[in-house]
Amino acid sequence: MEEKSNSIWKAGLTYGAILGLLLIIYTVILYVFDQSFNKFLGYVSFLLMATMAFYGAKSYRDNSLNGFISYGRSLGISMIIIAVAGIISSIYFMIHINVIDPDYIVKLLANSEEQLLNKGFSDEQIEMSLAMQQKMMKPALIVIIGLLGSAFWGFIISLITSIFVKKQGDPYQEAMQDIEE
Fold this sequence. Notes:
Elements lengths: L1 H31 L6 H4 L1 H21 L6 H30 L3 H15 L4 H14 L2 H27 L5 H10 L1
Helix pairs in contact: 1-3, 1-4, 3-4, 3-7, 4-7, 5-6
């Protein structure tokens, strides 16, 4: 019984670590090919999160719960997976912007300026916007905002993927399983 109650954490930590590693590798690939600010390629990380949340929850369902899982439990393991990955990738990102690419914030501000110019903002509006962004561009604050964003989008992704992972079984057996745990 004890082993089964811990298996959600074991599965969540395992798949979360794999997802965190995949996100780090993807970040490095974007950096190497100078595509760190490519908006479209940035959405691929959401696809990676959805895929791993789905696969991790499905694997947990099939290997630990005899092929059945409630929506809530699927949501729970998906959130564990994405939270672990968010923490791991945030730690790496802190290293990335402080050690690997210390000019990251300068590049980010230059990219923001270019986008504002393309949108037709006046010089005064651009200066105000960049001044405001510069105040927010502290590495620790970027990581905190990244973790909050990861939690928000992870929750949305988990809500969606859990729809496809849940598989109801016999309600009596599920109730008995919950009592045993």
